[in-house]
Design a protein that fits this description.
By secondary structure, the protein is an alpha+beta fold. The protein folds into two domains: about 80 residues, Beta-Lactamase (2-Layer Sandwich), CATH 3.30.450.40; about 45 residues, no CATH class. Helix content is about 45%, strand content about 20%. A three-stranded antiparallel sheet has the order 4-5-7, with no helix packed on it. A two-stranded antiparallel sheet has the order 1-2. Strand 1 and strand 2 form a beta hairpin. Helix 1 runs antiparallel to helix 2.
Length: about 140
């Protein structure tokens, strides 16, 4: 039989990986942690791990759902004959919103292999719009 303790740290596992520690500390020597308390705490730690996993899985599925919806909307825009420049600006804005990026700059290859930023969305977008650069030698985008 285990001796009662005044502190019980228990790991919170998520998908068999350590994620956090659930700690129960008694405030006085009168209310020590016994084996039954420890069993309850182990159950709580396991439930916390499952809850954390479920919350992360739910957020992942919501993020995928948002990306798929945005992808469908952008595809519809392209297929409907919307001006490609407008669609490119919409792509930049959508990707920035969904990714949480500060700045998104889709670059388009032009003759000679130069990549030019045709759309930009976010902080500093006006400074980078229209900027370009030559791809490194050997890049398949470069013109012969």
């Amino acid at each position: 039989m285990q001796r009662p303790q005044d502190e019980v740290p228990l790991p919170v596992l998520r998908s068999a990986r350590f994620d956090a520690v659930l700690r129960r500390i008694t405030e006085s020597a009168v209310t020590l942690v016994d084996a039954q308390d420890e069993a309850v705490l182990r159950t709580l730690a396991a439930a916390a791990g499952v809850a954390i996993d479920n919350a992360r899985l739910y957020e992942d599925s919501r993020r995928r759902e948002r990306w798929l919806a945005a992808s469908s909307e952008l595809t519809r825009s392209l297929l409907s004959g919307t001006d490609p420049e407008q669609v490119l600006h919409r792509v930049a804005a959508t990707v920035r919103m969904l990714s949480g990026a500060d700045l998104v700059t889709p670059a388009v290859p032009f003759d000679g292999g130069e990549l030019v930023i045709e759309a930009a969305d976010g902080e500093g977008a006006e400074q980078v719009h229209g900027h370009g650069r030559q791809p490194p030698p050997g890049n398949p985008q470069a013109a012969p």
